[in-house]
Amino acid sequence: LELLNPRQEIVVRRLDRTVVGQSGWEGDALERLGLGLYRPRLPPVIGSVSASSAAQAAGLQSGDEVLEIDGEPIDSWADLVSVVRRSPGQTLQMDVLRQGLRQQLTVRPSAVDDRGREIGRIGASVRDGGEAREQLMITVRYGPVSALGKALGETWDKSAFTLVMIGRMITGEVSWRNISGPVTIADYAGQSAKLGLDYYLKFLALVSISLGVLNLLPIPILDGGHLLYYLVEIIKRGPVSERTMEIGQQIGLAFLIMLMAFAFYNDINRLFSG
User: Fold this and answer.
1) All domains in the chain, ordered by first residue
2) Residue 70 to residue 109: CA distance in whole angstroms
3) pTM for this one?
4) What is the pLDDT of residues 74-85, one digit of tens each?
5) Which sign, positive or negative, has the C-alpha torsion 234, 238, 240, 242?
């Protein structure tokens, strides 16, 4: 992890990923590593309401400010989430401020399963005008020379990380469900583009590095496969037979087709499972 400490110094801390286990990278990986993110205080103002949700059934609208729930003052969005999560299936009296007028609504949070524990959910999101994001963002600028060194270091780290994750998938330490296809990649590209040009370019760079590492794997039909053939020719001091190359190409092509099919399956599964 690369961190900025209170003295405005950039420090690097290394964590042992092996303690997470095989399925630890699914869901909130930071939480499984024992880390909690700082979250700025958000006012308890409704941003959007999901269709066919408990919030919509109760009559909550975008812009409503939640004042109290069952007489308990609500000072932040975290307070609202806390009350709702611990009240699955219960009837709550919610006081809201709408266009300067105080109103009381009755809401019954839906009961949903969260890792084997039942919690409440109403299907409403917080309104964020960007103030919270500004509190969390820190801009670090590098000069041309230091930026080049930083870019090379990041490229090396991302390449090494990609190889490590591929190895962990082969050994079963990381689930193959983490493989993404073009649908998921396009979705993430759209999300990063909404955050700004910087995030979008970083995402494109990450995809390019991952594809570059994959292309250099010693699999026939990829560039890494050709390098493997060259290495074999150097060792045996003679060309690889056409029959051997043909069989290798067929195996490599079959592997890539299976990999793409699995990636598409994961994409479709994510679409239907949410």
Assistant:
1) 1-39 (no CATH), 46-127 (2.30.42.10), 141-274 (no CATH)
2) 13
3) 0.54
4) 998 889 999 999
5) positive
